[in-house]
Each structure stands twice: as structure tokens, then as C-alpha cells.
Design brief:
Two copies of one chain form a homodimer. Chain A is built from five helices and three strands, in the order ααβααββα. By secondary structure, chain A is an alpha+beta fold. Chain A has a single domain, classed as Arc Repressor Mutant, subunit A, CATH 1.10.10.10. A three-stranded antiparallel β-sheet of chain A has the order 1-3-2. In chain A, a hairpin with a 2-residue loop joins β2 and β3. Chains A and B meet through α1, α2, β2, β3 and α5 of A and α1, α2, β2, β3 and α5 of B. The first copy, chain A, binds a DNA duplex (30 and 30 nucleotides) through α4.
DNA sequence: ATAATCAATCGTAATATTGCAATATACAAT
DNA sequence: ATTGTATATTGCAATATTACGATTGATTAT
């Protein structure tokens, strides 16, 4: 079918799944790392650094923007992207909670 | 195309992307939460609790198993699944490192 | 042996994702 | 006005994902 049955899961489960889906591509991970490491917003530059076509990178940026992980602002002739601190905090918190559910003390499945 | 160009990214970027992709579905998140909360391996039970068909759940379990996030063992009449502590630790560590790249002190993109 | 139960696999339909060429849009410089 | 530069959008082809009915395989109970 290819259509996730979102209505049978909780808001939180869907939210986390959508955030992780936005991260779940090496190109988008590379883009985010590039933005973070530069410690400032990143304008252009991405095309040529990654080995992907301009249209493809633009599409990945759009995806990251639509989930709110990054935001862009026009800076003269080009567009600058940077991490959205609010969404990033949400991601950190939600992911931490999820991972913390595992206490690591199961004494089964040897 | 639908074919990720994995060869142009680093091993680490691909590894993280694959782990996150395995997590990036509400059903698989729900399955993992159910396993974690029960604090023991979970045998069957999943079908009926989530609103998905048996074949669908089996498929999601297979996906989680193939990336190594869970492992299954035959327990009498049914099959038990539990978190694989090693992969879970890798996930925690890799994800923590990724998130920590953001220092949150960009003074741009207002 | 037969029936019952549980989980895996197969086959298939519907939909989503990835990637890029081509094109469009926006703005700056000449 | 025209040219150049940077990013976005469109359209398309190839592949992947999601979901489930039907079937199969394995085990247990009768």
C-alpha cells in the first residue's frame, strides 16, 4: 500500500517517526552536519561539496525545512540555512525519552 | 530513481541513516516501546495490540531484526523478541554524537 | 494422525522516495 | 534591457515502502 496508518498510533509516536524519517537519509545527515559544523548559516556551498545535483539538494533542503529542522533566510543573492533551535530541542528531548525507555536489564533471549 | 547514492557518503553517515530509517515508522516505534516497557522479551501479543495485520507486524519485526535493533528467540510455542543491547548502545552513542554537533550559538538567520 | 495455533513468507496493489534534466524564478551587475 | 548567478519547481523514471490476504512451516494438544 505504501500508506502509513497514522491514525492508529499516538501523536507522539507519529511525531517522532516523522522527525526521524526526515533525518533518515545520508544526504540530509550530511547537510545538517555541514550546517552545524560551520557554526553559522550556510549559503549555497552545499552544491559541489556533496556529489549531488542542485535540484536534488534543493529537494532535501525543502524536506528538512518542511519538518522545521532548518530554516532559511534570504541573504543578498543567495539563501542561508541554519538549524532551527526549537525543533532541534524537541528532537533531542523526544529522542532522549525514547531511548531512555530501555533499561537494559532484560534477562531473557539468551 | 528511488536509489540512494550511498557511495558518496561516509560509512558513519550511511550507518546512522539506516538506523534512523529502521526507527522512522510509528509501528516500529510502537513495537520497540512495547518491548522496552514490558521489561522482558515480548512473545506474540503485538498482534491485536497494535491495529495491524499479523503479516504487517511480522514484516516490521523483520526489519528491526535485520538492522540488529532486536533479536528473537523461540520460546516454546511462540517467538520472543527483545532489544539487542549492543546495537542499542551504538544507536545511543551515534545519535548523541550527531545531536551534539549543534552548539546552538548561531547568531544568524533571524 | 489430526487439528489448532503461531509466526514467516509470498504475491500483489497502492503509494512514497530518490535523483536529475529541464525549466522557472529572483535578484545583481553590467 | 541583458547577462550572470543562485535557488526553486516541475516532470519523469527507477526503485522502495507499506499493508494485507493467502499460504506455508513448525510446534503443541487432542
Amino acid at each position: 500500500m505504501g500508506l502509513t496508518k497514522a491514525d492508529i498510533f499516538s501523536k507522539e509516536q507519529n511525531r517522532l517517526a516523522m522527525l526521524l524519517k526526515a533525518l533518515a537519509h545520508p544526504a540530509r545527515i550530511a547537510i545538517l552536519q555541514r550546517i552545524m559544523i560551520s557554526n553559522t548559516c550556510i549559503c549555497g556551498d552545499l552544491v559541489g561539496e556533496l556529489g549531488l545535483a542542485q535540484a536534488t539538494i534543493s529537494q532535501h533542503l525543502k524536506e528538512l525545512k518542511s519538518i522545521g529542522l532548518i530554516k532559511g533566510s534570504i541573504e543578498g543573492t543567495s539563501v542561508c540555512y541554519c538549524i532551527d533551535p526549537d525543533t532541534w530541542k524537541v528532537l533531542e528531548s523526544v529522542m532522549k525519552d525514547f531511548l531512555a525507555n530501555y533499561k537494559g536489564k532484560t534477562i531473557c533471549c539468551q
